[in-house]
Design goal:
It is a single chain. The protein folds into 2 domains: 70 residues, no CATH class; 207 residues, Fumarylacetoacetase-like, C-terminal domain (Fumarylacetoacetate hydrolase, domain 2). Helices cover 16% and strands 31% of the residues. The protein is of the alpha+beta class and 288 residues long. A hairpin with a 2-residue loop joins β2 and β3.
């Protein structure tokens, strides 16, 4: 099942013929929650209920052409965005070889096992239809295409052998980066610097996330092209690593690192990211 959010927070079921507006399936969530609000995304936490309701509603739901829809992030309220630095060996090598990328900071050239993961601000999250508002244009802004996955149930101290049971689904992630000497989470957290989309592909459709082609082009020129088999830590290992430090909640987003080929983007650039079995998303850059 491919689920998207579009327009003014509508929920859609993506099919070959277009998008079925199945927003009324959200009635299974109820309407009121006491303060404080839960730490998780309530749609993802109740995904099986929502999917069952979608199956009931979909045959009679109106179909809207996908072309022209403003696609939002398929997850509205993640508790956190977890990111994996230098998680492809050839990208680690290119960072080590290029002073523009490492900026003389030893933390930028160490292995993921030694420097760990980092967090991005949830306020940086947008969907492909919202575009990227580039800032600090006197500095280099880079694209990074990444497989993203969404946690489906509370995970704490999970072994890699059990980890895929905790995944709700997969999406394409763009981790946009301002180059500099500051901490990664600071340079990667401006508004719109995390793009998630174009929809959420539920985990049953991707039994093996460790063998997916991924690529990105800018203005029609291919910049990155690789396969998730080259990740240093795969999806199960990332869940094991992250959940050994903190609890993962439904709706938490994990972006898994980028392969070699990162390069600058500028206002006006059209970025097209693709991942096998998920699809592709087109994102426009603009000046903030």
């Amino acid at each position: 099942m491919k689920l998207c959010r579009f327009a003014e927070d509508r929920l859609g079921l993506v099919e070959e013929s277009g998008v079925r507006d199945i927003t009324t399936a959200l009635d299974v969530l109820g309407c009121c929650f006491p303060y404080p609000l839960p730490r998780h995304d309530i749609l993802i936490a109740n995904l099986e209920k929502v999917k069952a309701r979608i199956c009931e509603l979909a045959p009679s739901a109106p179909v809207i052409p996908l072309h022209g829809l403003k696609l939002l992030s398929p997850v509205a309220n993640p508790g956190k965005i977890v990111a994996a630095p230098v998680n492809y060996r050839r990208h680690l090598e290119e960072v080590r070889d290029n002073p523009e990328l490492h900026q003389g900071n030893p933390a930028h050239t160490a292995s993921i096992q030694s420097i760990g993961l980092f967090l991005k601000a949830t306020s940086s999250l947008v969907g492909p239809g919202e575009g990227i508002a580039l800032r600090k244009l006197d500095r280099r802004n880079d694209h990074e295409v990444e497989l993203a996955f969404v946690i489906g149930k509370e995970a704490r101290g999970v072994a890699a052998s059990e980890a895929l049971k905790y995944v709700a689904g997969y999406a394409i992630g763009l981790d946009i980066t301002i180059r500099g000497a500051e901490d990664r989470s600071f340079r990667k957290s401006p508004d719109s610097y995390t793009v998630l989309g174009p929809w959420l592909v539920t985990a049953d459709e991707i039994p093996d996330p460790g063998a997916l082609d991924l690529s990105i082009s800018v203005n029609g020129e291919t910049r990155q092209s690789s396969n998730t088999r080259y990740m240093i830590l795969g999806v199960p290992e990332l869940i094991e690593f992250a959940s050994s430090f903190y609890t993962l909640y439904p709706g938490d987003i994990v972006i898994t690192g980028t392969p070699e080929g990162v390069s600058p983007i500028a206002p006006g650039d059209v970025i097209c990211a693709r991942i096998e079995k998920i699809g592709e998303m087109q994102v426009q850059g603009r000046a903030a």
